[in-house]
Specification:
Blueprint lengths: L1 H7 L20 E5 L9 E6 H13 L6 H14 L8 E3 L2 H7 L12 E5 L5 E2 L3 E8 L3 E9 L5 E10 L5
Parallel strand pairs: 1-3
Antiparallel strand pairs: 1-2, 2-4, 4-5, 6-7, 7-8
């Protein structure tokens, strides 16, 4: 402790667990993608709380590439998901829980326990068409992802790119 205090002027403190706000209990199903959560969605991506928790554990909690604070938040969301009741109800994922899965939500489409509600035709689908494409423009790679329902309605749309710099 003395060396640490001499080097940095203070003794290390135990990091406080991150504050996140979650309801007391979790419904059986969660909307983890919708126009209310992200402008990329034109539909509602719905997943069972159990399936989401089964995905979070190996992909986020056990992911050593993620920061300790992020993993701790994922653990707290996982604990909250375990409180789900088999009530048949669906609710929108709370903002603090969404922050944990936001970058991965679209990748959960067509997985077990997930369905998509098309807002245009009002039908809930277990599987949707996913089209991914990329265009290589030498130093820039354009990437796009589109989901459509069997009737052709747009459900999700994301465009992005990667700019590559070439150092001398």
């Amino acid at each position: 402790m003395a060396i640490w205090k001499n080097l940095f002027g203070t003794a290390p403190t135990n990091a406080k667990a991150p504050d996140i706000s979650l309801p007391a209990a979790c419904d059986e199903f969660l909307v983890i993608g919708s126009p209310d959560l992200s402008e990329d969605f034109c539909s509602d991506l719905i997943i069972s709380s159990k399936s989401l928790n089964d995905w979070i554990k190996p992909n986020l909690i056990n992911n050593t590439a993620l920061s300790g604070e992020f993993i701790e938040r994922a653990r707290r969301v996982s604990g909250w998901l375990e409180t789900h009741t088999n009530n048949g109800k669906a609710s929108t994922i709370p903002a603090d829980a969404y922050a944990i899965v936001a970058n991965s939500a679209s990748g959960l489409v067509n997985t077990t326990g997930t369905s998509v509600r098309c807002r245009d035709c009002g039908v809930i689908y277990d599987r949707v068409e996913v089209e991914e494409s990329s265009t290589d423009l030498e130093i820039y790679l354009e990437i796009s992802t589109r989901w459509t329902c069997p009737r052709g309605h747009l459900l999700y749309s994301e465009d992005g790119g990667i700019h590559m710099s070439i150092a001398d």
